[in-house]
Amino acid sequence: MIKAGLFTLVPILSFLHSAQACGDHHHAKRALPSVPLTPPTRPLEWGDFNVIHTTDTHGWLLGHQEPSFPEPNYSGDLGDLASFIEHMKKIADKKGVDLLLVDSGDLHDGAGLSDGFPPGDVDGHESDKFLLQLPYDVMTIGNHELYNYSVTYDMYKNFAPKLNGRYLTSNVDIEVDGKRVSVGSRWTKFKTAKNRTVVALGVLFNFNANDKGTFVQSVTDMIKESWFKDALKENPDVFLLTGHMPVQGQGSEWEAIRQEIRKSHPTTPVLIFGGHTHIRDCVQLDGRSMSLESGRYMDTIGWMSAKLDAKTSTKNITFTRRYLDNNRITYEYHTNTTEKSFDTTLGQNITTGMHAVAKAFDLDDSVGIAPHDFNYDLAPYPDAEDSLVRLFAREAMPYALTYNNTRASIPNFMIVNSELLRYDIFQGPFTKNDQLTTLPYVDAFAYIADVPAGAAQKVLTTINGARARRGLTARELEEALHIAGGVELIHRQWVRDMIVEGQPRKDNLTLGYVTTDSCPGVGDDTLHKQPDQIFTPPRYVSSKPPTVNDTAPIDLVFVDFPRIRREILQALKTIVGKDYTESVKSYTDVTSDKILGMYAKHAWQSQ
Ligand SMILES: *[C@@H]1O[C@H](CO)[C@@H](O)[C@H](O)[C@H]1NC(C)=O
Ligand SMILES: *[C@@H]1O[C@H](CO)[C@@H](O)[C@H](O)[C@H]1NC(C)=O
Ligand SMILES: *[C@@H]1O[C@H](CO)[C@@H](O)[C@H](O)[C@H]1NC(C)=O
Ligand SMILES: *[C@@H]1O[C@H](CO)[C@@H](O)[C@H](O)[C@H]1NC(C)=O
Ligand SMILES: *[C@@H]1O[C@H](CO)[C@@H](O)[C@H](O)[C@H]1NC(C)=O
Ligand SMILES: *[C@@H]1O[C@H](CO)[C@@H](O)[C@H](O)[C@H]1NC(C)=O
Ligand SMILES: *[C@@H]1O[C@H](CO)[C@@H](O)[C@H](O)[C@H]1NC(C)=O
Ligand SMILES: *[C@@H]1O[C@H](CO)[C@@H](O)[C@H](O)[C@H]1NC(C)=O
Ligand SMILES: *[C@@H]1O[C@H](CO)[C@@H](O)[C@H](O)[C@H]1NC(C)=O
Ligand SMILES: [Zn+2]
Ligand SMILES: [Zn+2]
């Protein structure tokens, strides 16, 4: 299949459940979720220099509006965040301290507000305008801004200019009129409200799946650039490094940048804001530096504070960090406001504007009513009724791919990779937005005719092989950094890792993230418990085996992208002793993104 299919997401979200949405299913607009939310455990600890961080919002600016847990934890929308920032700025002012707002990229590919655009538009063009209404001090580019040149060009032409030199793309270029230029700016220097000098960079990890006409320079090469050396000639109070790059582990290059800075600025505070792997994480690379990564999809708002001393001091700086659940309870708690006093004019205007776009994009158009939640890893595949993987592989895929297909009467065995499924399905209307959040990837399906049924099933076992229930290998992890669905694997592995390392479960807590990171103290603002058990479906899953004998010839159907096609052909060669390369044909015009919608229309009408 085409590279574009794997990399081009077309997701959407669930704003349908908001008051201004029309249709027959919604909660009162921005009312608090009907379940009581657990408030944060303790006030934020302010320093002299404080930063609020967003990353990997992927178009989820309407927040998580589904009533099933833990979605209400993340029910704040961008308007609520804007109100929060406005109150927090006032608090900062009263305290006489700085409060900055920073973003680490990936603004679309994930939800309908960005990706549900009508033909002719550009992904994220409308939703980005809402982000521009917030007082961001610094933003940077993510890999999702680089899969399609039109999107990168939109960032260059329409987005970056609105940030007046604060859209930082230190190592990312675009070719325009035959010239290669930074999409935004390489670096910037500015003064804060309290007159502190800040030198800021915006760095992307060594991403290699970018579109033609866009360029990513490696971090190793970037730190040799003359502009980088110029930036280090400055003598700021703070280095503020934002970047679309994990704060530690595979794919993280922050240490190289920090070391370079430390050569000329051994003690200047270095604050790092990362992203891309969608997790909550924190690490201190040295005693005068802290690095924070703040989740994904508007589930988490990051907080970092630093008590600054003389910048030549060699003592450790007192930093704090906190992962705030994005909801109004959190925001009201930390700003000492109430349901009545919380909303600001700007916040309300943003919410109203977003709902108007959701309406224009038909994001609430429902194709059926999901009878219950379908969960990716809280229910075991293939047996549990509420396993999302079972729903897709065993029910929806076989239905949709054989729909109006002349090969429908020939027995088949269908193989698909489970990480295509990006987000859970919740009970209630299954909308255009839900289709985009759950399975945005536009992948085609191919088949090989006359494969012995027994061999077809052995192919599945073979390609799953040893990796079935193990963690990701270093090579898979590296690959996962570059492909869109790959980050889902990393995030899910992180959730599982947290279960091993996390705090003991407390029955009076609600489900949600339980974070263990490399920084001192507890990071989560609201304490949650983890699910009792997490199930890991195999990497590759299938339709039900056909009820024919092992030698009967069947159609072996599979999602057709290069890695899977390669692995299947290799396995067949080993099992059957035959090269089927020339026998691969297109099975249907139905692409992966259409499957759940077709199934919902067929199976979910009557509930
Ligand atoms: C978080 O989700 C859990 C269920 O997973 C729910 O019980 C709880 O109320 C939510 N907490 C917040 C703060 O939204
Ligand atoms: C890139 O985006 C443009 C504008 O939305 C769209 O017309 C085009 O089809 C996209 N390209 C790919 C390969 O998806
Ligand atoms: C910041 O510095 C400028 C001069 O550099 C001065 O005019 C201004 O009053 C200072 N503001 C604060 C808040 O200290
Ligand atoms: C200073 O911070 C570093 C890095 O976090 C840590 O290893 C070291 O123990 C700290 N030193 C003191 C005196 O706290
Ligand atoms: C919170 O607000 C209330 C009412 O405006 C006020 O009485 C109270 O002192 C405030 N509390 C804090 C901690 O600021
Ligand atoms: C309200 O939002 C619209 C976009 O939805 C924007 O054009 C306008 O400037 C905003 N007005 C105010 C007062 O913030
Ligand atoms: C069925 O397939 C035929 C041939 O591909 C096509 O012309 C027809 O429109 C399809 N019908 C439906 C209902 O999709
Ligand atoms: C849960 O219970 C523990 C001890 O029983 C208590 O300390 C804690 O405050 C409770 N947490 C919540 C959110 O009720
Ligand atoms: C297996 O099924 C095929 C096709 O239905 C048939 O031709 C063949 O005789 C069957 N073999 C056995 C051993 O039943
Ligand atoms: Zn992302
Ligand atoms: Zn990313």
Topology:
Layout: H1 3-7, E1 49-54, H2 78-95, E2 98-103, H3 112-115, H4 125-131, E3 138-140, H5 149-159, E4 167-168, E5 172-176, E6 179-182, E7 187-191, E8 197-204, E9 214-216, H6 219-222, H7 226-233, E10 238-244, H8 254-264, E11 270-274, E12 280-283, E13 289-294, E14 300-307, E15 318-325, H9 328-335, H10 345-360, E16 366-370, H11 388-402, E17 412-417, E18 428-431, H12 432-438, E19 445-452, H13 453-464, H14 474-480, H15 486-501, E20 510-511, E21 528-529, E22 540-542, E23 553-559, H16 562-576, E24 585-588, H17 592-603
Parallel strand pairs: 1-2, 2-3, 3-4, 8-10, 10-11, 11-13, 17-23, 20-21
Antiparallel strand pairs: 1-14, 5-6, 5-9, 7-8, 12-13, 14-15, 16-18, 17-22, 19-23, 19-24
Helix pairs in contact: 2-9, 2-10, 11-17, 13-16
The structure holds 2-acetamido-2-deoxy-beta-D-glucopyranose (9 copies) and zinc ion (2 copies).
One 2-acetamido-2-deoxy-beta-D-glucopyranose is lined by residues 35, 37-38, 69-70, 72-73, 325, 327, 329, 510-512, 526.
Protein name: Calcineurin-like phosphoesterase domain-containing protein
GO molecular function: hydrolase activity
Keywords: Signal
